[in-house]
Specification:
Blueprint lengths: L4 E6 L7 H14 L4 E6 L1 H4 L6 H5 L1 H15 L7 E4 L4 H10 L5 H5 L2 H9 L9 H4 L1 H10 L5 E3 L5 H18 L7 E3 L28 H9 L20 H9 L3 H12 L5 H27 L4 H28 L1 H21 L1
Parallel strand pairs: 1-2, 2-3, 4-5
Helix pairs in contact: 4-14, 5-9, 5-15, 9-10, 11-14, 12-14
Bound molecules: tryptophan (TRP).
The site of tryptophan has 14 residues, from strand 1 and helix 9.
Length: 352
């Protein structure tokens, strides 16, 4: 039986962090043997909020860094396809056609659009058509390889929902072509080092997969803990304390974490000792990731070759779906009918 397909990816705006890893990267690594995987470097999505020439000039380097993080996390380029969205002309084509299968109010209601606008310092009046269409472009990404599963963070769940609606409408209107894709969302977002709900580069509260051991120590030691605990002998709160949230997520020694929590609650351990433990745990977690990215980074041009080869492979798949889409909609036959008549005339004139 043919394998089912995954499509997911990220906007190339910087390096990936622990939140990306827990939210989606580790799912991709885990599922890459079971599914045929396509990972998109979504540079067209970046344009919806940042499209100056200078921004675009950053894309290649950002893409390289992001792909190094993918590879470091364990994505295997010999079995998975990593490709550059803007190099696939079918993406632009499909996005335009899918735009007619969803209403403007449906898109305008999405909180994610408003959030992205706010983050880019736009007000409602200056939201471009393209940003409103962000989920339609994402639907094109997902439907182009006819993906079955989309591992994403919670913030993207609504976009996969829109994709399902669009796919159903397409299938009803033009005939079955697209599988209805499922999202795969795991757990709550990882809090930031400052205790905010979400680790996010724009909030400056992240630990990057590419941070070295000293950077990790520094970031951990400046972490927010329990603000009411001004001395180590005061009983501390574990719940909502990001240091313990991280230990829960990354420390393989669950018994050790439980002991540490008990001592923290009893006021029998200082923040520094807990943070030392977390530093050790995170660096042990990151070491194999660092090693793998260093392996790829050391070979000049290898990351570019991975993106390039993946993009060329992907073009075949994109081309095939787009031919099917145009055939199903009847767009192909519009031009064919005109072409047939025109060719007939040319032939007749050539004979005369
Ligand atoms: N919207 C995703 C983000 O927040 C990036 C993305 C673009 C994506 N196309 C996708 C994710 C398709 C999953 C599937 O960065």
């Amino acid at each position: 039986m043919e394998k089912k397909r995954i499509l997911t990816g990220d906007r190339p705006t910087g390096r990936l962090h622990l939140g990306h890893y827990l939210g989606s990267l580790r799912n991709r690594v885990r599922l890459q043997h079971e599914y045929e995987c396509y990972f998109i470097i979504a540079d067209l999505h970046v344009l919806t909020t940042k499209n100056s020439k200078e921004d675009i000039a950053q894309v290649a380097d950002n893409a390289r860094g992001m792909v190094l993080d993918y590879l470091g996390a364990g994505i295997d380029p010999t079995i998975s396809t990593i490709f550059l969205q803007s190099a696939i002309h079918e993406t632009y084509e499909l996005a335009l056609l899918l735009g007619d299968l969803v209403t403007v109010p449906r898109l305008a209601r999405l909180p994610s659009i408003k959030e992205m606008a706010r983050a880019a310092l736009m007000d409602e009046e200056t939201i471009p058509f393209g940003l409103l269409g962000y989920p339609v472009l994402q639907a094109a990404d997902i439907l182009l390889p006819r993906a079955h599963l989309v591992p994403v963070g919670k913030d993207n769940q609504a976009h996969v929902e829109i994709t399902r609606e669009i796919a159903r409408r397409f299938n009803n209107q033009y005939g079955e072509l697209f599988p209805i894709p499922d999202d795969l969302v795991e757990g709550d977002a990882l809090p930031g080092t400052d205790g905010q709900a979400k680790m996010s580069k724009s909030l400056g509260n992240v630990i990057f997969l590419s941070d070295d051991a000293a950077a990790v120590r520094k970031r951990v030691h400046s972490m927010y803990t329990d603000p009411n605990r001004i001395r180590a002998d005061i009983p501390g709160t574990v719940e909502g304390n990001p240091v313990f949230t991280y230990l829960d997520q990354f420390d393989p020694d669950k018994v050790g974490v439980d002991e540490l929590k008990a001592r923290y609650r009893a006021g029998a351990v200082g923040d520094v000792e807990v943070k030392e433990r977390l530093t050790e745990v995170l660096n042990a977690f990151l070491d194999p990731i660092r090693e793998r990215s260093a392996y790829y980074a050391a070979q000049s041009g290898l990351v570019d070759e991975i993106i390039y080869d993946g993009t060329l492979r992907y073009r075949e798949i994109a081309g095939e779906t787009m031919r099917e889409v145009k055939k199903a909609m009847g767009i192909t036959s519009t031009f064919n009918r005109i072409a047939r008549k025109a060719e007939e005339r040319k032939k007749k004139l050539a004979k005369a």
